[in-house]
Design goal:
Layout (H helix, E strand, L loop, with lengths): L1 H29 L13 E7 L3 H12 L6 E8 L5 H11 L3 E6 L9 H11 L4 E6 L2 E3 L4 H6 L8 E3 L2 E3 L6 H22 L11 E4 H6 L15 H7 L5 E3 L7 E3 L5 H12 L7 H26 L4 H25 L9 H21 L7
Parallel strand pairs: 1-2, 1-4, 2-3, 6-9, 7-10
Antiparallel strand pairs: 4-8, 5-10, 6-8
Helix pairs in contact: 1-6, 1-10, 1-11, 2-3, 6-12, 9-12, 10-11
GO molecular function: hexosyltransferase activity
Organism: Formosa algae
Protein name: Glycosyltransferase involved in cell wall biosynthesis
């Protein structure tokens, strides 16, 4: 019984840690009120890095080229593609004078390194304000550039946006992917709102060219295959130079993976960069994940013994209610309300997936960005 007492009080502590994260950190974005933004009209370079993306470019590039913005350039980077990506880019360039082509060849030192390709693209961009989007991604509105660049207020040199995934009916994997995206966004938006920005997503991110050169580009983490977005933001973002853009018109939408194996490989690449975050960020994110995992493991363990089951059930209900309210508000803000009813189930799958990814990355490292 002494052991069960210790486990029970540990569970109580775990629940309070979780409540602290939700009520102090994650509520910062969930209940944020939109403020009026002042549209900008300065020139912008939209940077798109493409590797074997001929079909996606045909489908999504027009939504970038047709943006309602007075002065923008589109920098299209062909990162040593093996398909007809370069030919597609050249065809678009013949019809649109705003396109700048950067054709990257593989080199022994930077083989399959997206950061090398992006560096060449950024250097080729003629404007200081840079807006990034993936080749398998489209803006959800023709005012995407206007919405994102409005975040470049006085002294702001980084703008964090939201990159959604398109919905697929009757697909649990699709709901899992979108829930993980919402949970990640709730964290990086909330932390940034509280003055401790730690990451952004490259499928909808903006920063200045001058800030890129101030950081000496990606030199501090060039050897890390992933992290052209989150590691750069982790290195350079501060409470003073970072702004958030979460208006619906500012969203981008990407093509989600359709198989568990493909999504798992993608997440392995993304997660592999987290160990290079600043130590304080690693601690906060690590405690949140560990307390998530232990909440379910320890809670279910106690219930299996019916040990103080009334209190355990009450704490379970309290934590799930707080999570449902806060993540529900975030999901609504990000147009993902259909996920709310499945939050507990989706959370369990996400926790297990992250655990498997962590173990897999310890055994072997992802080697390419695509």
């Amino acid at each position: 019984m002494v052991v069960l007492d210790i486990i029970f009080y540990s569970f109580v502590a775990i629940v309070f840690i979780q409540l602290f994260y939700y009520l102090v950190f994650l509520r910062a974005f969930a209940f944020i009120k939109p403020k009026p933004v002042q549209p900008q009209d300065f020139p912008v370079s939209v940077v798109v890095c493409a590797k074997n993306e001929e079909e996606n470019l045909k489908q999504f590039l027009p939504s970038i080229l047709n943006q309602d913005y007075p002065n923008f350039q589109v920098v299209l980077i062909n990162d040593a593609s093996a398909d007809e990506t370069l030919s597609v880019i050249e065809e678009f360039a013949e019809q649109h004078s705003c396109i700048k082509i950067v054709d990257v060849k593989n080199t022994e030192a930077f083989w399959a390194n997206k950061k090398y390709a992006l560096t060449l693209g950024i250097k080729a961009a003629k404007h200081d304000h840079l807006l990034f989007i993936d080749a398998d991604c489209k803006p959800v509105s023709n005012t995407w550039i206007s919405e994102m660049t409005a975040g470049f207020e006085t002294d702001k040199s980084i703008v964090l946006g939201y990159g959604a995934y398109s919905k697929i009916k009757n697909s649990f994997l699709n709901k899992l992917i979108r829930f993980e995206t919402v949970l990640t966004a709730s964290q990086y938006f909330s932390y940034a709102k509280m003055g401790i920005p730690y990451m952004g997503v490259g499928r909808n991110l903006a920063y200045t060219k001058s800030l890129f050169f101030e950081a000496n580009g990606f030199i501090n983490h060039m050897n890390v295959r992933s992290g052209d977005d989150d590691l750069f933001v982790n290195q350079m973002a501060t409470s003073k130079n970072t702004s958030l853009c979460y208006a619906t018109e500012s969203f981008t939408e990407s093509v989600p993976k359709k198989t568990v194996a493909a999504w798992f490989r993608q997440k392995r690449r993304h997660v592999s960069s987290a160990k290079y975050y600043k130590k304080g960020h690693q601690f906060l994110l690590g405690v949140f994940y560990i307390s998530q995992l232990l909440f379910w493991v320890v809670g279910i363990f106690l219930l299996s013994f019916l040990f103080h089951w009334e209190i355990v059930v009450g704490l379970f209900a309290l934590r799930l209610l707080v999570q449902w309210i806060i993540i529900g508000q975030t999901a609504k803000k990000l147009n993902e309300s259909d996920l709310v009813i499945l939050i507990p189930l989706l959370e369990i799958f996400i926790i297990l997936t992250q655990l498997v990814i962590f173990i897999s990355n310890k055994i072997s490292k992802p080697r390419t960005w695509k």
